[in-house]
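SEQUENCE-TO-STRUCTURE ENTRY
===========================
What this section holds: a protein sequence and its matching fold, both as plain text.
Question of interest: how does this chain fold, as expressed in backbone structure tokens?
***
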Amino acid sequence: MTKIFPDFGPLTPEAQNNQNGVILVPANSGRPADIQTWNLDVQRQLMKNVVVSVAYVGSKGTHLPALNIIPNQVNPSFLSLGSELTMNSSCLSNDSCPNAIAAGIQLPYPTFSGNINQILRPFPQYGNFNQEDNSFSPDRSGNSTYHAMQMKVDKRFAQGLSFLVSYTVSKNITDADSAGPGFLALSAQTVSSAKIPTIGRPRRPSASSILHNPWWPASL
């Protein structure tokens, strides 16, 4: 058989040596998100053409696209090393970073070159893991909850007038905000990182009306 492709490899850590990032496509990146919604609406007619309604609206989102997991992040427990994290790894051989040496930190492979914080990454041969740029496949660890009370007064068109007045009070909590890659400082933390998103308004009044002017000419 004719050999088509040239010899390739071997693949060694020196190929990247923490100089470049790689594109990561998580195994569950193609999973559709789950959204459940529910509501309860109570309406009452006050007058012939006026209806008042009060509604509760809720929703729950799971498996939302998020960037909560940063695979190649240094564990926060190493922050105690302080300024030694930014020191070149050569300090391990000249004893100029005693805390790192006492912690048992060693070169991940013989030809490694970089700072101490790069050694402590789960994959020290790589830089950042790109989860969004080309693959557009962030992890699906996002969750959200939404609760709202919606009040509305609706006057149907009669005697030349109609109006709609509404007011919504809501609260949205999510850990899948649209702030972009890495908006969470420490993805290694196990505490809840859910927060009120940067978009949306918790209180939203609105009003509209139509008034028929019988003195306005029908056509110009």
Notes: Confidence is low (pLDDT under 50) at residues 179-186, 188-192. Helices lie at 91-94, 98-102, 116-119. The chain has three helices and seven strands. The first strand starts at residue 22 and ends at 23.
